[in-house]
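Try this one yourself first.
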């Protein structure tokens, strides 16, 4: 257990101050990483493995506008995650536990969604893998940024 006046970094319990600038700067960086994971995933599966995800096979390595939409969706998901963790940090005990469950369950949803399409199994698996990697990246990066933002606010408070 942490000494009085220190924030336990593993649980982040109770209401606390948050360095919003640090949190949102990290959130913007996470959004960029998430968008780039989407792009890399599409390029690898389409270009290296020849799996036509998000567009017909004849649309090349980039695919079509669906690739851009996936990148935008990944970036928006990261920013939504930052908004959620910010609200949780300000209002909820064990904020990162709840955040982990929220992002984890959302990742499961986006991970199984490709299997509800009529795409071939290789495309479904590739899309699911990209979605899950994006979800894990958002979870890990935003959680780490949240810990830093709380610790920085505690040191400066």
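Now uncover the answer:
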């Amino acid at each position: 257990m942490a000494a009085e006046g220190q924030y336990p970094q593993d649980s982040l319990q109770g209401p606390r101050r948050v360095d919003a600038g640090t949190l949102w700067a990290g959130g913007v960086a996470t959004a960029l990483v998430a968008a780039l994971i989407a792009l890399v995933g599409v390029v690898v599966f389409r270009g290296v493995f020849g799996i036509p995800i998000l567009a017909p096979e004849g649309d090349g390595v980039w695919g079509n506008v669906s690739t851009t939409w996936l990148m935008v969706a990944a970036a928006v998901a990261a920013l939504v995650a930052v908004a959620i963790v910010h609200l949780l940090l300000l209002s909820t005990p064990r904020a990162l536990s709840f955040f982990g469950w929220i992002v984890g369950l959302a990742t499961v949803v986006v991970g199984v969604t490709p299997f509800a399409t009529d795409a071939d199994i290789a495309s479904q698996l590739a899309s699911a893998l990209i979605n899950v990697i994006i979800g894990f990246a958002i979870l890990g990066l935003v959680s780490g940024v949240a810990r830093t933002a709380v610790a920085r606010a505690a040191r400066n408070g």
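Discussion: Residues 121-156 form the longest helix (36 residues). Residues 35 and 155 are 32 Å apart (CA to CA).
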